[in-house]
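Researcher: Before we compare anything, I want clean individual predictions. No alignment, no superposition, just each chain on its own. First chain goes here; please echo the sequence and then give the C-alpha cells.
Model: Echoing the first chain and its structure:
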Amino acid sequence: MAGIMKNFSCDVKIMLMTAIVLVLFGICQLSGCGSPTEDNGGGGPQLTVDTSELSFGESLSEITFSISNNGEDGLEWTVFVANDAPWCQVTPDNGTDETSITVKIDRSLLLKPGNYSTVLTVNSNGGRKEINVRAVSSTGTIIIDTPLPE
C-alpha cells in the first residue's frame, strides 16, 4: 500500500484511506458484523422463543408460546403475521421483556378444505425469530349469499 500511496499528496492519501475505511465498514454492515442476532459476548438483550412451530391441526383454535430474554438489557419485541393470513391473530403483538403470546385461528376464515400455513416473525432489539403456523380445515366454511325477499 505504501508504494502505491507515495505518489499522492497528503490530502489525497487521507481521502483514499477514508474511502477504504468506509468500504470496509459497509461490507461489515452488509455481512451482519455486530448484529443483534449474534452472541457477541455483550450484555445486550437476547431474544428467545420457546417454539419454532405451532400446529393447530383440525380442531385447536388457540395456542400460547413464550418470549423471553436471555440477555442483560431490556428486550423490546414486535410480532408480525404474514400478510396472507387474516385467519391468524396474535395477542399481544408487541411489548417489552418476557411474556406469553396467544395465537388464535379464526376457522370461519378457512373457506376451503385443506392445509393452511403462515409465518410469525418476532423482531426485537435482541434478534429475530420465525415461527411456522399450520392449520388444517377438513370442511371449510360455506357462505350462502341469498337475497332477502322484498
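Researcher: Okay. Second chain, same rules.
Model: Second chain and its structure:
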Amino acid sequence: MSPITRWWRRVRPLRLRPVDPTTCALRRGLERELNDGPAQRVAALAVELGLLSVDLPDDPALTGRVAELQGGLAAVLAELREIGGVLFPPVLASDGLEPALHAVAERRGVAIAVHSDLVDQATAHAAGLAVADHLRSVPRDTQVAVRVRRHRGTARVDVTEERGQCG
C-alpha cells in the first residue's frame, strides 16, 4: 500500500447526513420531555427512598437492599440523561455549537478542534446534531477537526478525521 493511500485512510473528509429543522425541534422536544418526565420521576423516587431509609430499623439486610435500590435508581437516571444527551446535547441549546461539540467529544474520548463562523441558532443546532451523531461512531484515538462556515447562502460543515492507526 502506498504512503498516500495510508495517509488517505487516516485523514479523510466525511459526508454527514444533514439534520433538518423539524428533526432538530423534535429531538430537542424529546430531550426535554425525557428530562422533565421520566428523569424527574426517577430522581424523586431516589429522594423518597433516601428519606425512607432514615426511618428503617437497624436491619443490615434491609439497609443493604435499600442502598442497592438507590444505586439502581442512580444508574437509571444516568442512562436517561445519556439518552437525552444523545437526542439533543443540552449544552448545544444553552452554550452553543463549539462548547457542545467539545462536550460530546470529551464524553467519547475524542480529540476535537472546532472552528465556526457566526451562524444562526437553527444552523448551529443542525450542524451540532449532525457532527454529534457522527462522533458516536468515531474510535477513541481519532483527532477530529470541524469547520462550520457560510457558503453561498448556506452553511457548510467540513469534518476531517485523523485516526491514530492505519486501516
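Researcher: What stands out in the second chain?
Model: DSSP finds six helices and four strands in the chain. Additionally, The CA atoms of residues 56 and 63 lie 8 Å apart.
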